[in-house]
Structures are given as structure tokens and as C-alpha cells.
Amino acid sequence: MEKVTLEATSDYRRIWFYLLEAAGLDVQLVNARDVKAAPGRPKTDKLDAVWLAKLTERGMLRPSFVPPAEIRNLRDYARLRADLTRDRTRYWQRMEKLLEDAQIKVPTRWPAG
Fold it and tell me: 3-class SS at 60?
């Protein structure tokens, strides 16, 4: 099986990680600090890619932990839920302020039913 190494430099690497993983490749994510610590690091993107390949071949890079796809999906849903809850609260507070500025008092708890 072929192995691909990606530097974990930003969120831009996510799409590449997911695509390569879906293609059936063995993808490892490495900390950019570990790559920079290796001696002889080149300065251009092409040479950098060759350097990553050489370090991977020699087993000199420690892969970062990447949770399984199921856990990543669960985390994405949990983040989305937290974002939607925060947005709902923010919109409710904006509406409440707008009404109170118009001298309309909003009860803190709406009656049930």
C-alpha cells in the first residue's frame, strides 16, 4: 500500500486528507514542527515534497493522531449543533433587545401550548 504524508499546517489539509483516504491510500498527518526539526530541510515546495517523501521512507516522522471517520463525523455534527444553538440564542437576544427598545417587554418564559 502506498503511503502519503501531509503536513498539518492548517485546515486546508483536511480536504486532501479525506480525498486521499477515500482513494484507499495510507495517509499520515505529521506535525510541521517535527518536519522542520529534521536536518537538511529544503526551502521550495517541490523540494519540500521530496523531503517529506524521504523522511517518510526512512520512518523519521511520527504521525499525528487522526480519529476514525465515524468519530470525525460525530465531532462535525456536535460542532454544527453547538454553532446552531449559539446562533439561535444570538438571534433570540437580538429580537428581545429590539422589542425592549420599542418598549415591549418579553417574558423570560413563554407559556406552554
Answer: coil
